[in-house]
Amino acid sequence: APVQALVERFAAIYTPAVVIGAIALALGGLLISGDTEWIYRALILLVVACPCALVISTPVAIVSALGRASRMGVLFKGGSALEALAGIKQIAFDKTGTLTHGRPEVVAVDSVNGLNRDEVLALAAALEHGTTHPIGRGIVRAADGVPLPSVSNLQVRAGRGIVGQVGPGSVQVGSPALFDVVPGELGRRVDEGRERGQTVVLVGRNGHAEAAITVADSIRPISPAVIASIQSLGVHPMLLSGDVATVADRIGAETGISDVRADLLPADKARLIADADRVTPTAMVGDGINDAPALAAARVGIAMGAGGSAAAIEAADVALMGDDLTALPRAIKLARSTRSIILQNIAFALATKLGFLALTVGGYTSLWLAVVADVGASLLVTLNALRLMHGQDKTHAI
């Protein structure tokens, strides 16, 4: 960690300075007074001034914190990430797969020509079967157990949907732009869904839209509590999304995030994070390959470890191994506690050294007391750092 490197640079100057000071004290006192007592005092000075407690104060605290974090399901890629997280004042969250489940589900099926729910889902799932698109997978899951018709001549229409041959006619699944005729009732359903931040997929035959499937990605139940906890720590949350504004705004409202940015490409997210970090120390939480540039640009990149892509985890400085967002505020508290204990240890070690140095020069201490002070200071800073090993590690405890 940077603070550890600083302490070690200080010790590299401090240690030879103390040795020179001890030699000067012994020779100077001996030459001036002729008393060999000054050699004894110089030995006491060497023992008291030994920087053991100072140098060990930081690494013991960091190792203790990293061990505690691993029990919490948080993987830090070194002490520098732990120290950086303690200073974070703003966190940007990706939407899909981070604050939400990343699994769009069917919430409503509407038909205008008498098709029932299973018939609509069967037609749509027959075309979407085998797709990797999250919305298509949601439709397929909703049609689980429903017999699917055979499909031939399957064609993907980029940006609009998918078309296939079912029996003697063609079937279309996609946006209104894919159809020649969209009844007013279904058109209104599409508009209502957009206003609510939902995705509405139309299903039809031979160019005529006959039904609408409403799909929505639900938030993780714990997300609002996590955001509230983040805010209680004085950290400002942001929501970054490549989705349309209505969808992003809905997720922001449900999770309690007022600062919402939508319609962002991966490069836009990275640029926004870099600009924000120049003003306020900013972290980024994400899970997808599209989040990797933003994770790399952030002061601290935090990846959802279990569901995150390999690129996101590689680019991040921290991984939440169980995809448990509740570990995030607890990790921030741990990082701040670590910083506090490191400062306590450094202050105690320096104060102890300065106090005994003054007593040594004045002749008010002894060699055995110096040994006790040196070893005692090392033990006390170690015990203080080990306090970081104990605390609340229970899942979903904020």
Query: Could you tell me the mean pLDDT?
Result: 85
Q: Please count the helical segments.
A: 15
Please report the total strand number as a whole number: 13
Strand content: 15-25%
Largest sheet: 7 strands, mixed
Distance between the termini: 26 Å
The proportion of residues forming helix, as a percent range, comes to: 40-55%
Class inferred from helices and paired strands: alpha/beta
Q: Largest beta sheet: what is the strand line-up?
A: 1-13-12-11-2-9-10
Radius of gyration: 32 Å
Helix-strand string: HHHEHEHEHHEEEHEEHEHEHEHEHEHH
User: Low-confidence parts, pLDDT < 50 over ≥5 residues?
Assistant: none
Shape category: rod-shaped
